[in-house]
Task: structure prediction
Amino acid sequence: MLLALSTGCGNGSEINSPDAGGMAQPSATTAARAIVSVTPSPAPATPEVIQTEPPAVKSVVLIPAVPDYTESGRGYEIKGEVVQASFSADQTLPLGLFMPETMVRFEQDGRTAWGTPDKQNYITLMKLDAADAAAGDGEFEPGNDRQLLKYKEYLGSKVIGGQTAEVFEFTAKEHAYRAELHIQAEQRAALLPVFIDMLRDVEYMEKQPPITPGVFLTAPDVGSDPGKKQALQETMDCLEAWAAGDKEKFAATMHSPQLNEALQFFLDNKNVYHFYELTVLGIPIQGAKRAAFAVSYTRMTSEGYIIDGGNEISLLKNKQGEWKIANID
Result:
């Protein structure tokens, strides 16, 4: 756009001169024009729309490797709430899933199943032999759910008993396994993401023979001092009650009812303990008022997980001068 600006450049004496007959006469410079070129601002740029393409078919690994179970825990979001999940072992296979506390484990068609309490939505696992693995893909429809198609382990779906099952195949310790996710249509939106997360977190745990609960150790020598012998006996009584799950006997060894209540989880967590070694740390420990023992054991969880462990047992004297359990750490 061009803008013409007119500016007067004459001086005052010329304009008011008597020779001008009372009229101002413009000088040659008065008519000077300045031509200014103005470039209009560009219109605002339209934001670029970025198209996000869904992942390609079989481009995502759901289970990179199946780890060994290490007694960890999980939490899954179900219908907007985070629900805690604990390891639940398959009853025949060396595998397990983390099962939300709102679900149950049950038997379905000869397999272990994890799912909703009404047993209408669930996951099952099976071990494949060479023939199963070779013939597997022809059994399934490819499906059109891109949420599933992106996974390399996804085989497709099949109808079983009027219900659609989503089928995956994965490897654990060089063996092939198949997972089936059975979900009712009306529950699919809420449960499919949870079942996928549960399958992603599958872990390996070899079945082992059960251990024998109890105290199987040689009591350490504490000498002939009555106080030291009483501290040892109190500790042995505590271990026997611990192994047997005897709450009354366990409480009798505690320094206070509050401590007994705080340590009840040793009896309530459904573990089996096999105590095999007890070591004296001091009666009392030098420079302290407390006595202490170190105990070693083998522990088996209710899911069959076996691990060696140990604790330090501390004792303090009560008002009657008797040693009582003051902590198990």
Q: What stands out?
A: The helical segments are 12-15, 130-135, 146-149, 188-200, 226-244, 247-252, 257-262, 265-268. Confidence is low (pLDDT under 50) at residues 1-38. Residues 135 and 208 are 32 Å apart (CA to CA).
